[in-house]
Amino acid sequence: MIEEKSPKVIVYGGNGxxxxxxxxxxxxxGASVVCLSRTGHKPLHLKEENWGKDVRWCKGDASKPxxxxxxxxDVMVCxxxxxxxxxxxxxxxxxxxxxxxxxxxxxxxxxxxxxxxxVILLGAKIPGVMQSKSFAYFAGKQSALRSAxxxxxxxESHSSIVIQPGxxxxxxxxxxxxxxxxDWMTSMISPLxxxxxxxxxxxxxxxxxxxxxxxxxxxxxxxxxxxxI
Length: 229
Ligand SMILES: NC(=O)c1ccc[n+]([C@@H]2O[C@H](COP(=O)([O-])OP(=O)(O)OC[C@H]3O[C@@H](n4cnc5c(N)ncnc54)[C@H](OP(=O)(O)O)[C@@H]3O)[C@@H](O)[C@H]2O)c1
Fold this sequence. Notes:
- The chain is an alpha/beta fold and 229 residues long.
- The protein has helices at residues 17-28, 50-53, 67-70, 90-114, 136-152, 182-186, 200-212, and strands at 8-12, 32-37, 56-59, 75-78, 118-122, 159-164, 167-169, 171-173, 179-181, 197-199, 221-225.
- The strands form three sheets. The chain has a seven-stranded parallel sheet, sandwiched between helices. A two-stranded parallel sheet has the order 7-10.
- The longest helix has 25 residues, at 90-114.
- The N and C termini lie far apart (34 Å).
- The model has no long low-confidence stretch (mean pLDDT 92).
C-alpha cells in the first residue's frame, strides 16, 4: 500500500527519460507521485528499485486530461513532447506541434479546470536560428509556454515553472533494458558549449524543487533556462 504524502504530484510523461529521474527526485523530496503516460507502463528496469514501488504508474493522456484525477493533485508536471525533428509534410508538422504544444496546453487547461494551483512544464532551450514558426517543435513549445503564462496569470495563488534545458545528458534506458549513456557521447563537445547541455539529474532536481517549494515561484510564471537550471 502506498502511503499518502504531500504535495500530491501528477506527472504526465513520468515514464520517459526525464520523467523517471524527475519521479525519483520527487519521491526523495517526500512528494506523493502519480505517473501518467499513454501506455501506463512502469519501466521494466525499475522493477527492483524501491522508490519505483512508491509511485503509482497509470494510463493517462495529457491531451485528454482526467479532471477528476487532477482534482486530487497539488501540482501537475507536464514532461510530454517529442524530439526536435524537422518535418517535411503538413501531417508531420501537425503531429510534432500536437506532441509539444496541444498535448501540454490541454494538460495545463485541465489542471486549471481541476483547481490545481501549480504547474511545471518542460520546455526546451532552442537556438536562435531554429526559432521559427515553420519549425513545429519550436511552435509547439511556444504555444505550451503561452499556456503556462496564462495559467499563472489567473491569481496570486497560481504559479507555473517552465524549465528549458538544451540537450539533456544522462543514462537513458530503452524498453529492452539496454542503457544509452548520453553523457559519454556528449562529453567531448559539452565543455565547449556548457550552456547547451544539462544533466538529467539537474533537471530532475529542479523539477522536484519547483514542486515542493512555494517560494520563490509563487504568483507568477518563472522560466528557468540552460545553465540556470
Ligand atoms: N531529452 C532531451 O535532451 C530534452 C531536451 C530538452 C527538452 N526536452 C523535452 O523534455 C520532454 C521529455 O523528454 P524525454 O527525453 O524525457 O522524452 P521521452 O523519453 O520520450 O519521454 C516522454 C514520455 O511522455 C509520454 N507521453 C508522450 N505523449 C504523451 C501524452 N500525450 N500523454 C501522456 N504521456 C505522454 C511517453 O510515454 P507513452 O508513449 O507511454 O505515452 C514518454 O515516456 C519533451 O517535451 C522534450 O521535448 C528533452
